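Figure S7 source data.
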Amino acid sequence: MAASRTEILRMLAEMARLTALDEGSPQSFKARAYEAALAGIEGHPGELTGLSKTELTKIKGVGNSIAEKILEFDTTGTVRKLEELRAKYPPGFVELTRVPGLGPKTLKMLRDRLGVVDVDSLKEALDAERLRELPGMGEKSEEKIRRALERLGMHGKDRRTPLVEVYGLAHSLAARLGDLPGVVEAVPCGSIRRFSDTIGDVDIVVATTDPVVVMNEVANLPHLSELIGSGETKTSFLTHEGLQVDVRAVHPDQFGSALLYFTGSKVHNIALRQRAIDRGWLLSEYGLFEEEKVVASVTEEDLYAALGMEYVPPPLREGRGEVEAAAGDRLPRLIRREDIAGDMHYHSDRSGDGRSSLEEMVEAAIEAGYRYVAFTDHGEDLTINGSSREEMLAHRDRIRQLDDRYPEIDLLFGCELNIGPDGSLDYDPGFRLEFDWCVASIHSHFDLPAEQQTIRVLKALSDPAVNAIGHLTGRYVGRRPGVELDVDAVLEGLATTGVALEINGALDRLDATDEVARRAMAAGVDVVIDTDSHHTRELIRMDYGVRWAQRGWVTVDRVLNARPIEEIRARVAARR
Ligand code: DGT
Ligand code: CA
Ligand code: CA
Ligand code: ZN
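Tokens for the predicted 2'-deoxyguanosine-5'-triphosphate complex:
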């Protein structure tokens, strides 16, 4: 076998995770070695398969031992050490690392002393009030863990996985199946294709003339931990992370109807089936039929057209009025990736957590086809990551020089201001006006009461230097709930001041939510779709941000960074 770059990265990420568990700390020497290798490989373009050990060790962060594991993985499809760790830490146990407050050390103790091996046994131990007996734990920590379990929806059949943990896997699986002989196309469907922020299971539809080859490949995938069921055209299995994957092989002639059916949502499908029935037809995963005759089946476009509707983009297929709109030719002109003209939340290594230089970030922006970009490195209030006034002014000089050197792009000197617990911002009002553009965002104090959070954000956005509110709630999907606030009050504040609502395209953020974005459209609030990139590889987040915005029915005319830079500058000037 030859492993793809993504598969190798996934293997190393899993090694890092399991090693941290095994060593009792993500800071252990071994765990950090994997993290270093991951960072090095991510910064190193090109495939890794076929490289020799010497060539591999030339990559930053990759030492002998890791190079050997990459070679072993590339030739055998797995790594012996990884298999050992997987046996020791099954998926149900690894999942517990998602619970805030349960670090590797604590997990080890819970397992050794209380026999906790998964969410269910953790719940039992909590119910029996046994955690409080352990060193360093008490009633308070029990309560905290109990609340986290509830908030994350981590028990029972309703368990969902954040999109960010599934997206890469689903696409690399599909790419692998897409390369098999006889396969025309393989596409992740279901909630992944609709770009939902959390995922129940992975559905992959494969158009092929040879289903046997596909089913054989699936049964032998290195990702497979447990086979759930297999037939001639469908195989279901669990991955080592405990995620269910359903792969269905369909004939290329029926690809459109299979895509449509397995993309869902269920509510959307039911409405389409009803439209078919109203016409005396039947719609299934095999096609749209009039008696025995096929009306349409090859592409989704054919099917929507036959049903007398506009094509509905997958992120819209949630049964939120899209069927009626598409049937009445009333689908709004949604934002698309090619409409985006620039990025207004963008870091360089001027930020402590920035990983690419100004030059690299400028070149990546040009590569992405942008006409402008606003560098928004952190303000001084974020002590480690932020910059002093002197540093910012020197930074401005460099940005202006680069702006002259690259005539094809306009560079703005901006800042990501930190919103303090009381709504205060970095620097002073005068200095803040030195910036061409400011995004203000919350980075701490997530637990304040809703009323206080609302006042906090309203105060920040009333500052004339503020042009957008970044990642509104500060949530991390499935890990940290966002701050609670009065969304309508904030939207009203944005509408009256002309400050934009950011849609942050980081897969683990996707913040503001689709729901809030849709309310923003109704409230007359403009949005900016940003990547918040800290590294050149993160520019891909613009694709994600756009799809997330589509879920919120965001239209092109309401996206600030789809407009010419002059309009943005004029809006900034008008606020001051
Ligand atoms: P998930 O996995 O919970 O994140 O959500 P989905 O939407 O991926 O749902 P899933 O995996 O149960 O099914 C995939 C798609 O298959 C779903 O979006 C629509 C279609 N589908 C599944 N079951 C049914 C059904 O009973 N009726 C209809 N009309 N469609 C279904
Ligand atoms: Ca699914
Ligand atoms: Ca499924
Ligand atoms: Zn940022």
